[in-house]
Design goal:
Length: 335
């Protein structure tokens, strides 16, 4: 499933703020800078395709570990880790952040081989563990799949593909139209209809009416969302999946992706998150279901923190806890 931070936004994370800062006062530079950014992403994908998949994934990890800590987003990663895992050693924060960037580099490299994960030799490297089917009326019914930015989250789309379910997934459009087109072309391999975040309120009900299942990644901050606890703090969270599940009577099914070793991945399909019966207030029921989903995400992230893409500020802005600031500074110093 596609997420708000798509796979080829490695270039965006590493160069985005610099490019935007230059382009804002100098609009005539916008197109050349967009071209450079898209060329960087295309170059990494081309290099990946020239290598064996395992070598490409390993190269992506090294590239991510090297460039990620130099990104302006690195501070968000450290802050998010400090909130989610308070009291850890500063060296742990820095090493976990580097692992996160390394995993993101792998995701970018593996973006070159999406079709081979669906129907090629790489499909054998992905284990799917299904806990959902016994709880569904049948596996051909419409489902609202929800997941988090963990391991190679793009491959969560293998589940509806293997179950022969037409699926519409929500993604975030890139500001750079050249990069956006590059991403869209590569994602055609997922055999999913793409809906931009800004159009989701209008197009998701239409997709459901056409018989599609939905796929959404909802672990990151959603500015139009509601405050739901996440790692003990209120966080702006998308409640739309739970609302749609309640409104249309569809199962809300969590999907987890784990990286076992290199290209070896495991996708676990969990039993649906059901509302507590009877449902007297849909809004409260949706919030309760989303809170349960967040608790599930917490368990996944605690188990594999180095696979969680958290390069976007997750919690609301406010007076920063001095301990968080100190942890972040010590982590940077330890690097």
């Amino acid at each position: 499933m596609c997420g708000e931070d798509g796979s080829t936004t490695v270039a965006k994370h590493f160069l985005g703020r610099t490019l935007e800062r230059w382009a804002r006062p100098l609009p005539f530079l916008r197109h050349p800078l967009w071209t450079a950014e898209a060329a960087l992403a295309a170059g990494v994908l081309a290099l990946s395709r020239s290598l064996r998949p395992a070598a490409a994934s390993n190269f992506g990890e090294r590239l991510g570990r090297m460039l990620g800590p130099k990104s302006y987003k690195h501070r968000h990663v450290l802050t998010n880790l400090a909130i989610a895992f308070p009291g850890r050693d500063p060296a742990w924060y820095e090493e976990t952040a580097r692992a996160i960037w390394g995993n993101l580099g792998r995701v970018l490299a593996e973006f070159a081989f999406l079709e081979r994960f669906l129907e090629g030799e790489l499909a054998e490297r992905v284990e799917i563990v299904d806990h959902a089917s016994p709880h569904l009326r049948n596996r051909r019914q419409q489902i609202i799949f929800v997941g988090a930015h963990l391991a190679n989250w793009e491959l969560a789309a293998l589940v509806p593909n293997r179950w022969s379910l037409p699926v519409t997934v929500v993604h975030a459009r890139q500001t750079n139209p050249l990069l956006d087109r590059l991403i869209a072309r590569r994602r055609q391999a997922l055999r999913a209809r793409l809906v931009a975040v800004g159009e989701s309120a209008r197009l998701l009900p239409k997709a459901l009416a056409e018989g599609h299942s939905l796929g959404l990644l909802v672990d990151q901050r959603f500015d139009d969302g509601e405050l739901v606890p996440f790692f003990g703090r209120e966080a702006q969270t998308a409640v739309t999946p739970a609302r749609l599940a309640l409104r249309h009577g569809l199962p809300l099914v969590p999907v987890r992706v784990e990286r076992l070793d290199g290209l070896d991945l495991r996708i676990t399909v969990y039993e649906p998150i059901e509302p507590e019966a009877p449902v007297r207030d849909r809004r409260e029921a949706a919030l309760a279901m989303t809170a349960r989903l967040n608790r599930l995400f917490e368990d996944w992230i605690r188990a594999r923190p180095g696979e969680w893409l958290c390069a976007k500020r997750r919690w609301p802005k406010g007076p920063e806890d001095p301990k968080l600031r100190a942890n972040r500074r010590r982590a940077v110093t330890a690097a």
